[in-house]
What we know:
Largest sheet: 4 strands, antiparallel
Number of helices: 9
CATH class of the largest domain: Alpha Beta
Strand order of the largest sheet: 1-2-4-3
Strand content: 5-15%
Radius of gyration: 22 Å
Shape: globular
Distance between the termini: 84 Å
CATH architecture of the largest domain: 2-Layer Sandwich
Amino acid sequence: MVHARVHMIVAELSKRYYKQSHFSCPVTLLERRARRTFTIDHDVSEKIDDLVDGHTLEINVLVNKAIRRYLEWGRYVDSFKLVTSDPRLMKTLWSHVTIEEAREMGTRNGNDTVVEFILYYFHKFDLDCVLKTFRMIGGEYANAYTYSEFGDKESRTMILRHAMGRSASAYYGASFKALCERLAVRVELEESDDQLICKISGASAPITMLSKTLKEQTPNRSRERQLGS
């Protein structure tokens, strides 16, 4: 009887682990959790029950994932006009943009919009925040590319695999380079039709800028562009 009971417990734990992995949100039994009570619409409740087949653990994983997605992505969509697009459509759009035009767009985006987003999201601006933005926003939520990174703090390599054409690589590369230049970080770019490789060096003594410092820089850069135009 004892052996049978042990086997039942192991089977149940294995089943729960499988269910958690299926939702791509691993949860350990010892992880600290906060308990909250919510009231949701009846039709939403029915859809949740249909989706998870009445398993309480799956409901927790699903709701946690949905709330996390909203906090890390959804609430910024309206403020920064963020959208997700079909990569096939983006490939067609990028095919009508020259490499130089894409690079100019990327530089402008890296100097303005992306910096504002990073400050709004992280309340600071450093290399780790830049990499997290490319990984989390562009890779995980917008699904614009597949993100990978390796190396150490002194020498890192970031790879964006996208298969959207050379102009897309030029755009992402120019945007990333503009961000690194603000941090006095050297970066070497390798652009191709299906991926962008960014080799980062000189980041052993990273610079961190806070909102006030960066806001003081931005007007100066704007005046420099006006004088040089």
